Amino acid sequence: MKITDIQFGMLRVPLKTPFKTALRTVNTVEDIVVMVHTDSGHVGYGEAPATAVITGDTHGSIIAAIRHYISPRLIGQEIADLNHITQLIQSAMEKNTSAKAAVEIAIYDLWGQLYNAPLYKLLGGGDPVITTDITISVDYIDKMVADSVSAVERGFESLKIKVGKDIGVDIERVKAIYAAVEGRALLRLDANQGWTAKQAVYALQTLEDAGIKLELIEQPVKARDLAGMRYVTERVHTPVMADESVFGPMEVIELIRLRAADIINIKLMKTGGISNAIRIADIAAMHGVECMIGCMLETSISVAAAVHVAVAKSNVITKIDLDGPSLCQFNPVDGGVIFNESEISVTDAPGLGIREIRGLERIEA
Ligand SMILES: C[C@H](N)C(=O)N[C@@H](CCC(=O)O)C(=O)O
Ligand SMILES: [Mg+2]
């Protein structure tokens, strides 16, 4: 099975409700879909969101990176030579992790199709059902409380509460949600870099002193402020998770060496795809550090790949934030992974199992 062509499409899926974080507000998922074609007639699918505020990637940069740097290296390559291909993708250029991820996902999809096996089985196998949290966007307190209660009623047992806008209101947001859900769901906070280290310690100690038990706090301070991450980690009981602070394996090694966080959030769009996600999971496991697997605003194409990784690496990926498809108004994918509110299941279809993507706008070469 040899690679013959790489094509692009644009996928637009409106969100059920605006997605609001300390960094941005989004109403519609607008992602680049990558289709890798082979001489055997098989197609592998990948997807990349333009999360410029986190990865630096835009729609234009994703297409240009693949078209001019990655694609020329891959045409003619044998899918069976997986490690060689992932090495070609990762070394094609610096950064551009979302572009690399989209192509790697499509290659792994084809690798599964080549051996007629679902990806998670080729990655080591595992329990085919996982459970995700759901994001509660940062908003007025009453709206966040209503969204949280509604999520609990839909069966979500873990809520990812976005904070990081205003420290005083953030504390009130969390207190109000904690009281409203009455122990029916775990609360994870994500400040998306919105606090200073001192503010984070103040907010978390205030909540801890009020008897509020949080599952974790994600990325309290600026991405590059590893000293700040460590400052918070050393001073609060709530486990601290690094998200924007760590992209690839080298950053994870440094974070662990500095003891700057307790947990690592792996995202395919930060790692540049599946190969580095697996490396990070293995490094973390060796150091006894737990991981979450998360997503950006992605549909069930690239999130399917993250699900297969999560299933196969459940020894170390103990927390799941793969709610992208649940936030979308509809699922554009026929086949693939099954997303049913908090419950996500892989099937035994080869690769990612994607048969068709509806509503894809073709981007001409
Ligand atoms: C969608 C997911 N639950 C999430 O919150 N992901 C990111 C933010 C993604 C974005 O801004 O597109 C995170 O910070 O964890
Ligand atoms: Mg985050």
From TrEMBL:
Transmembrane segments: none annotated. InterPro entries: Dipeptide_epimerase, Enolase-like_C_sf, Enolase-like_N, Enolase_C-like, Mandelate_racemase_C, Mandelate_racemase_N_dom. It holds the Pfam family MR_MLE_C. Keywords: Isomerase, Magnesium, Metal-binding. GO terms for biological process: peptide metabolic process. Mg(2+) binds at D190, E218, D243. The keyword Ubl conjugation does not apply. Its EC number is 5.1.1.-. Substrate binds at R24, T135, K160, C295, L297, D321, D323. Its cofactor is Mg(2+). Binds 1 Mg(2+) ion per subunit. The active site is at K162, K267. GO terms for molecular function: metal ion binding; racemase and epimerase activity, acting on amino acids and derivatives. PANTHER family: O-SUCCINYLBENZOATE SYNTHASE, O-SUCCINYLBENZOATE SYNTHASE-RELATED. Belongs to the mandelate racemase/muconate lactonizing enzyme family. This is Dipeptide epimerase. It comes from Rhodanobacter glycinis.
